[in-house]
Amino acid sequence: MGHIVLMDEPLSNKIAAGEVVERPASVVKELVENAIDAGGNSIEVRLEEAGLTSIRVTDNGKGMDAEDALLCFSRHATSKIGNEHDLFRIRTLGFRGEALASIAAVSKVDMKTSDGESGGCRIRIEGTRIIGQEPAAYRKGTDITVSQLFFNTPARLKYMKTIQTELGHSIDYMNRAALSHPGIAFRLIHNGQEHLRTSGSGNLLKVISDIYGAGTARKMLSFSGESADYEVSGYCALPDITRASKNYMTVLVNGRWVKSFAVTKAVIDAYHTYLPIGRYPIAVIDIKGDPYLTDVNVHPAKQQIRLSKEPELCALIRDAVRRAVAGSIGAPAAKPPK
Ligand code: ADP
Ligand code: MG
């Protein structure tokens, strides 16, 4: 008799969770991405103890009916791709159908949701075990609370850093979510204190002002450019305000915040000698292109990306930013937001 056995689903979910759910900010990211994909225009995140005690995300998106509300916690359950062809044309932030199953495997989840038609429902899960499932009145949208993260994986819990560090990761993610979706009103509250609030007006410069301050927003230059395959636009700061870290450059590809060494290098190169040594610009680089040019299925967290025709894209960005920066010397910056 052989030695190989197939794992049961709770065990494989717990293993997958190790990749998807690294820390509270990973949960915030997955839940907020689901809320964005659900298509609403208001997303509120409430954290207690940096999310280690609880993470609550409320959206006014399309919600789910009772059947989907249960199914969404199964591994590989997704409404976002149906076949192999779709994998190359992804327009949503999610598609792997793994996040909720992974989160539920390592925490206690309480979710209320309604599609606005079939009446709402409430589902409670503890480490993959369904402990409650009942009809519950709720408006259209979803309200999900994840508490006691890593309660059943003590090794992971021990690895958590200080509240400040964990909170910092969530704030950073929320800032980027707001920058990538100026049309959505975001709110982040930690232990009752508000850390981020955007209006959802659709104005990117206004979001930059909400996050980096009105003074910085007044020093932003707008840039744009177009090539055969890509369209780029965004804002970059006048070279007289710089930062000691590259973290103030946000690269967005079709609404997804990604980490791209090549794109950030193109932006830095565009400033050429205007940047003091060891200083970096503040910039938001919004890249649009056909999804078939971008492969996001590189890592479960989807922050790494493979871009086709990357040299063409980087040249486009370098030229657009360079034009804005060179043209600004002595000229006024972007119009300050209202
Ligand atoms: P993925 O986002 O990759 O599809 P998830 O595990 O994150 O996988 O979510 C599974 C499914 O649950 C989604 O495809 C979606 O249909 C549904 N879902 C999750 N969160 C929400 C939400 N906030 N509003 C509406 N539907 C949701
Ligand atoms: Mg998802």
From TrEMBL:
Descriptive protein name: DNA mismatch repair protein MutL
Keywords, comma-separated and alphabetical: DNA damage, DNA repair
Described function: This protein is involved in the repair of mismatches in DNA. It is required for dam-dependent methyl-directed DNA mismatch repair. May act as a 'molecular matchmaker', a protein that promotes the formation of a stable complex between two or more DNA-binding proteins in an ATP-dependent manner without itself being part of a final effector complex.
Coiled coil ranges: none
GO cellular component: mismatch repair complex
Membrane-spanning parts: none
Family, per entry: Belongs to the DNA mismatch repair MutL/HexB family.
GO molecular function list: ATP binding; ATP hydrolysis activity; ATP-dependent DNA damage sensor activity; mismatched DNA binding
DNA mismatch repair protein S5 domain: residues covered: 208-326
GO biological process: mismatch repair
